[in-house]
Design a protein that fits this description.
The protein is 33% helix and 23% strand. By secondary structure, it is of the alpha/beta class. The relative contact order is 0.18. The structure holds adenosine-5'-triphosphate (ATP), pantothenoic acid (PAU) and potassium ion. The site of pantothenoic acid has 13 residues, from helix 3 and strand 7. Homodimer. Its EC number is 2.7.1.33.
Length: 260
Amino acid sequence: MSGVWGAVDVGNTSIHIGLFDRADSRPLPAPTTTFSTASREPDFSPWAARLPREPITWNIVSVNRAGQAAFENWLTATRPHDHHHALDHAELPLAISVAAPEKVGMDRLAAAVGANAIRDPQRPAIIIDAGSAITVDVVSVAGAFLGGAIVPGMKMAARALAGQTDMLPEITVDVGEVPTAIGADTLAAMRSGLFYSAVGGVRELIERFTAQLNGPAPQVIFAGGDAAKLAPQMPVASVTIDHLVLGGVAIAARHAKAPR
Ligand SMILES: Nc1ncnc2c1ncn2[C@@H]1O[C@H](COP(=O)(O)OP(=O)(O)OP(=O)(O)O)[C@@H](O)[C@H]1O
Ligand SMILES: CC(C)(CO)[C@@H](O)C(=O)NCCC(=O)O
Ligand SMILES: [K+]
């Protein structure tokens, strides 16, 4: 058995992979190595050479079945001695207080596991994961996942604007800088709308969740590729955690009863 865990987060845009040291006993472990590739036609080859030779056990959370199959097929073909296991909601060290826990995206649940490891135990947490979709979710003071909201991510919204109109182009929302609010041409207007609607949506959800929780002020935790753009725009203090989902997967692997 090798000294590392593999954690895999299969999203709708990207597959994020991390290697974790099994001896990492921090509340939220951090990956020693990460690699990302597109979920559609992923290419793992640039990374394969960096993997240890010993067999690795991979724990997977997936919200994209084709991406998951691509990863598993690659593994079977290139690393036949490795093991892989797609985690199920029931395997997470997490109370899930919704009627249908099996329908909740495993990335949302793994992020909640990660959030529980770092939050103040006296306060609930609001988790914003800004990827293909932006999810805004809640864990209670007791640590239970309560649900939340799902919003199109900025890139997805940009695609929708271009795809369902005649005159709007597809733009990249790679806003290196914060856009001017009053956009003076089409591109500037789209950039403004895409950015500030995401900012405003997340802000409104934080506010409403906070009101509904009606208790100690929630801790706000950002994750995902667009976190760095959104977090500074919020009127509340927050922390941004890289690899929150992968860290949650590593915690789940650590907690698993059977040695994997
Ligand atoms: N390390 C990074 N630094 C800056 N931007 C990033 C980084 N990683 C991803 N992004 C950008 O942030 C956006 C969201 O990234 P993230 O990796 O969280 O989600 P995704 O992979 O796009 O979606 P999903 O996880 O749903 O597949 C993407 O549009 C991507 O271009
Ligand atoms: C919301 C996304 C797309 C975010 O990646 C994913 O978590 C998902 O497909 N979830 C399934 C539906 C749900 O979470 O209720
Ligand atoms: K879908």
